[in-house]
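Kindly inspect the following:
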Amino acid sequence: MPSGKSSGDPRSELRELGGYFKALSGITRLRIVKQLAGTAELSVSDLAVTLRLSQPLVSWHLSGLRKVGLVKVRKDGRQVLCSLDREKLRQYQQNFATLLEEDWFLS
């Protein structure tokens, strides 16, 4: 679904959306997404300071967001810089809206 490729299998599409919602189900992950939405890029260290969390905890939550493609990561020397993949976020939102309009989903 978010990749733009629909397998046609409703269960597969539901699993993919389920993974998206699971990745966003925690308050900490929502706070991370909100911070990343407000800037082009932040280091993991800066996120940890801003959110008043340990760097390992922030990294752990970022891995869940990366797994579903919501966060992109690049290295600059020893720093790990993160950004929100806004296009992927839009794709998930659109796919969810489309899902709600499909008849099979409601039956």
Remarks:
- Strands lie at 42-43, 71-76, 79-84.
